[in-house]
Amino acid sequence: MRCDLSLELLNAYLDNELDEKQRLFVENHLRECPQCRVELEELQCGDNLLKQREIEEPTNRFHLGFENRVLDKVRQRARLPWVWRFSPILVPIASAALIVVVVLANREKTQPLVGVGELIPYSPTKTARSDNDLSVATVPRADRERVEKSDRVAEAGDLKDLHAKKAEVANEEKAPATISKSSSPAVSATGVTVTTTAATPEPSTGKYRDEELMTGEDLARNQAIMDELNIPKNKVVRAIVDSTGRVVKVATGNTIQPEEDKILEQQLEGQQLAPRSTAGRKQNLLYMDLTRPAETDSSRPDSLKTEE
Amino acid sequence: MYNTNEGDNVLIERVKNGNTEAFCPLVERYKMALYKIIYRMVGNRDNTEDLVQEVFIKAFTEIQKFRTGMPFYPWLSKVAVNHTINYLKRERQDRFMPIDDLKEILPSHKDDPVKMTREKMLKEKIAMAMARLPNDYRVILVLRVEEDMPYDEISRTLKIPRGTVMSRLARARQKMKEIFKEIKVNGYAL
Questions:
Q1: For A255-271, how does the pLDDT look when each residue is reduced to its tens digit (9 = 90+)?
Q2: pTM score, whole prediction
Q3: Which residues lie below 8 Å from residue B21, measured CB to CB, with a gap of 6+?
């Protein structure tokens, strides 16, 4: 157990760093305290040992030509442009900026192709439908990859439920002639339209998103679903499906801007309208056009007939 | 050509005015002093030589900050100490090394036991003890005990208050004493 004289004071006394008053205080204490005298001896002894520490001799390289090597480096540094001299500062800043750019670029890529909250637009450029054909047409759209499907089944349906009534009203009141004309489906067409900018489908095979096919079975199943729900012909039915092929959002109404249809959406909930997409594309959402064309011009709504 | 007999301040003024050659005698004059102080902190010859070179380059680039008329070596040693501290931090040598590891890196005479005199063994143990000290303690002991630097100068060099110098030095010496006891250094009054 040592006394309460601070070690700092004892060390400073050893190092001769105390003023006169402090030095006298410590000396008086040391006369009376044998423990502190032992402590001081140990400190002194430790210092003496440290001073005996050997230092390895430097190599010959250090003795010969060292000055010239330093001067060479110094001259190189003097010749460097200011950009390099400030590189310790600029490099981290540039690296951080690069990381931000990369992160932002990747963020843009990983965004879903179609937002669930978005309105489902009607594509007036939709083309290449032919009778009894699974033909596929590529229609480039803006900056996002989009796949749009149109499953058309030439089959008449009865106007029994609410949707059928709603469709009639929509077709009679809202459908503008210009869009209807350009986009009105061919008579008795049964086809699939896939629209993509990133991956061009093969028209002859009706390839779906590069890897999967919208088969006849798929089309027949969709047709059956629409039949079961008594969706009338010429009623614009648009759906957003996820990569598992299941319905996310449904809209019905006119061809310019169909409105969200929660009732039909609930009815279609759980139905697989499109083939399951490949892994890694789970965030992709697809547009599907489930509108069924009328079999003949005579079956089309009167409003369209008069416009033509 | 440069004149090696010219004073530090004359040479430094020339360097400041763009005469790179004038830096050569300063390197020649102080390289061994820097080697010793850096070696004491690092404990490795190759690393020390590299660090000495880096310190001179750093001193050259910062020579405009040196106030002509002041003694050059304290300024240079301050650059060296801080550069070495940064190196030690980078290398993460701030940990206690096992004695077995130290035996491998320290100069050893295991192959020739005859030369292993008592004095030599003692010096090895001292080096071993220093290597086991944390960086802060080792640096302050080097500056005070081996370089005989006054407290105020240590305070300026390490940019710490004088009170911190006193307390850190006291703790460093206590730690050193513990290590000496642990590795049974002969000749230590215990």
A1: 666 778 888 888 888 77
A2: 0.52
A3: A71, B1, B2
- Residue range B55-99, pLDDT digits in tens: 999 999 888 889 888 899 999 999 999 999 999 988 764 444 544
Provide ipTM, 2 decimals.
0.81
> What distance in Å separates the CA atoms of residue B31 and residue A58, rounded to the nearest whole number?
11
Q: Which domains does chain B have, with CATH numbers?
A: 1-93 (1.10.1740.10), 96-190 (1.10.10.10)
Cβ–Cβ contact B35 with A under 8 A:
yes
A143, exposed or middle or buried, with CB in 10 Å at 0-12, 13-18, 19+?
exposed
How far A40 CA lies from chain B's nearest CA (Å)?
A: 11
Task: Give the closest of B141, B150, B167 to A50, CB-based.
Answer: B141
- Residue count (chain B): 190
Are the Cβ atoms of B53 and A69 closer than 8 angstroms? yes
Q: CA A68, CA A75: separation in Å to the nearest integer?
A: 10
CA distance A264 to A170: 15
Cβ–Cβ of B35/A70 closer than 8 Å? no
